[in-house]
Write a structure and sequence with these properties.
The complex is a heterodimer of chains A (115) and B (113).
Chain A (H helix, E strand, L loop, with lengths): L2 E3 L4 E5 L4 E3 L2 E3 L5 E7 L5 E7 L5 E3 L5 E5 L4 E6 L8 E8 L9 E2 L3 E6 L1
Parallel strand pairs in A: 2-12
Antiparallel strand pairs in A: 1-4, 3-9, 5-6, 5-10, 7-8, 8-9, 10-11, 10-12
Chain B lengths: L4 E3 L2 E4 L5 E6 L6 E8 L3 E9 L2 E5 L6 E5 L5 E5 L8 E8 L8 E2 L3 E5 L1
Parallel strand pairs in B: 2-11
Antiparallel strand pairs in B: 1-3, 3-8, 4-5, 4-9, 5-6, 7-8, 9-10, 9-11
The chains are: A mainly beta (115), B mainly beta (113).
């Protein structure tokens, strides 16, 4: 079955420290890959996406993610976390070569930032 | 450009009633998708409309339905509400040629009592 796993439900990071959020997927073929962020009471904002090409992708707000086909992973990273990064982060996948926009989301990782 | 707008933002309904939620996509976007977000199940895809036609449907009962109008605005309807339908309902729109670049609205928080 197609699925996305985010192993960490909650992570706390000190402000200025580096961050890595994990994402693993189970899919028949390499899907399109996404990271979204959701602040309390808000909708989802697209941080970055991977369609093809360079496996290290850059996104907004200083985030990057690396696609590793052999590990079926798409981990999100940021070298220095800011207090405003506290939010919930979702990894998502979508099928290639298929009309439509049905994404499968992970359960999310809540990021807390301590001072 | 204005973002995706959803109305109403908050809604309280009684079990057994029906509800209609509205979504206005970003100008020029022709694809609209709906998702349900709950603490237990997370984000789940409901359905997607493109040019007034349902293009994809998630695994939800027939009580959940939707439609899209010629101006790309979309509505979703839930009939015979159950307590478990309490959720945040998110709408997302996409440009025609970048179907996976989805832009989400703030959601409608539905509470069923």
């Amino acid at each position: 079955a197609q699925s996305v796993t985010q192993p960490d439900i909650h992570i706390t990071v000190s402000e200025g420290a580096s961050l890595e959020l994990r994402c693993n997927y189970s899919y028949g073929a390499t899907p399109y890959l996404f990271w979204y962020v959701q602040s309390p009471g808000q909708g989802l904002q697209l941080l970055l996406k991977y369609f093809s090409g360079d496996t290290l992708v850059q996104g907004i707000k200083g985030f990057e993610a690396e696609f590793k086909r052999s590990q079926s992973s798409f981990n999100l990273r940021k070298p220095s976390v800011h207090w405003s990064d506290a939010a919930e982060y979702f990894c998502a996948v979508g099928p290639r070569n298929q009309a439509g926009t049905a994404l499968i989301f992970g359960k999310g990782t809540t990021l807390s930032v301590s001072s | 450009k204005a973002g995706v707008t959803q109305t109403p933002r908050y809604l309280i309904k009684t079990r057994g009633q029906q509800v209609t939620l509205s979504c206005s996509p970003i100008s020029g976007h022709r694809s609209v998708s709906w998702y349900q977000q709950t603490p237990g199940q997370g984000l789940q895809f409901l359905f997607e409309y493109f040019s007034e036609t349902q293009r994809n449907k998630g695994n939800f009962p027939g009580r959940f339905s939707g439609r899209q109008f010629s101006n790309s605005r979309s509505e979703m309807n839930v009939s015979t509400l159950e307590l478990g339908d309490s959720a945040l309902y998110l709408c997302a729109s996409s440009p025609k040629d970048l179907a996976y670049e989805q832009y989400f609205g703030p959601g409608t928080r539905l509470t069923v009592t």
